[in-house]
Amino acid sequence: MSNGLVIAAVDGSEHSLEALEWARLAALRHRTGLLVAHVLSDSAQLYAGRRAALHDASEPEEYADPVRDRVREVLAAAPERPAEVRYEALEGSVPEALRVIGAETRPLALVMGSRGRGGFAALLLGSNSRAVATTAPCPVVVVPRAGRSGAGGAVVLGLHTAETHDDVLAFAFAEAAARGTAVQVVSAYPAPPSPAVMPLDTPFAVITPEELAGGDDLAPAERETLRAQQERLAPFRERHPGVLVEQAAVPGEAAGRLVEASRSAALVVVGRHHPKRSLGALMMGSVANAVLQHAQGPVAVVPATHDQPA
Questions:
Q1: Residues 6+ apart with CB under 8 A from 123
Q2: CB-based contacts of 32, cutoff 8 Å, min separation 6
Q3: pLDDT tens profile 226-250
Q4: CB 32 within 8 A of CB 6
């Protein structure tokens, strides 16, 4: 993250207020402003439209907004607030309203709960959260229901060495620098014919070029993946020399390892989709989708700038 503010999408539910707290702390870490956005209910939108159409001066100018009042109470009780805090009521469908405000403000991140009001309690990811993560032209942080807040731990980055956009790496390193924590990088390589001989729980490690060159105990595919990681990570290490980088290469899919890492991570960062494989910004890659569905902590889904919708 660099310039811009942090948007918290709220609907008044306790879960969305957890996302508000995550956004408040993020704004403080990055020394930026906080915009609290609430998409009005259908009844509130109908009221506003009726009043505008009838020009009825006898009706109150402002529809009662209990969500705004609750947000004010929560922020007033917080130990510290960002220097700039503002509230904005939005109209339209939730995904479209948040997509538009994300396009207009170009925030550091748009933060929301994985589920809001309504829906089926058994679902880990609500339809609005999925739609926003899939279409918003900015990074979207999804805070899981009854999950960890991501207060501690490292920033975990899912990296496809050939396809993950630099925007995703930049986001992960900036977040780690703001938190004063490490970046743990997970990349996958094709599983060998006999997966039983390859450990799936490869530990994160700080790997030097000398160790990589002399790593006779590494399988060729693992060594090549770690080497490709180092090549992609080099410019970001130069920009953030104070950020410790730990690497891991795992056979098969990276999603399982990222979900497991989410149990202790401050944040898991994934790219929204593979630009070389998808049909456009409305596609989400299988890894991002799996992590969003099953993560135990906050997940940031980061689109590539050149793939953002107009």
A1: 115
A2: 3, 4, 5, 6, 82, 84, 108
A3: 999 999 999 999 999 999 999 999 9
A4: yes
Token pair in block for residue 143: 């805070």
Q: How confident is the model at residue 1 (pLDDT cuts 50, 70, 90)?
A: very low
- DSSP per position, 105-148: H--SEEEEES--SSS-TT-SS-HHHHHHHHH-SS-EEEEPTTS-
Closest CA to 205 of 175, 250, 260: 250
Mean pLDDT for the chain? 82
Q: What is the pLDDT of residue 190?
A: 84
Query: Is pLDDT above 80 for 212?
Result: no
Q: What is the pLDDT of residues 60-93, one digit of tens each?
A: 555 678 889 999 999 999 999 999 999 998 988 8
Q: Which two tokens stand for residue 33?
A: 């402003």
Sign of CA dihedral 69, 70, 75, 79: positive
CA distance 173 to 302: 13
Query: Could you write out the DSSP letters of every residue in 199-240?
Result: -S-PPPB---HHHHHT-TTS-HHHHHHHHHHHHHHHHHHHH-
- The number of C-alpha atoms within 13 Å of 122 and in the hemisphere containing its C-beta is 0
Pairing type for strands 109-113 and 140-143 reads parallel
| pTM greater than the 0.90 cutoff | no
Q: How far is Cα 215 from Cα 221, in angstroms, rounded to an integer?
A: 12
Domains of the chain (ranges; CATH) run 6-131 (3.40.50.620), 155-307 (3.40.50.12370)
What pLDDT is attached to residue 105?
Answer: 92
Residue 122: band (very low, low, confident or very high) from pLDDT cuts 50, 70, 90? very low
User: Residue 79 and residue 88: Cα distance in Å, rounded?
Assistant: 22
Query: Rounded to a whole number, what is the distance in angstroms from the first to the last CA of the chain?
Result: 21
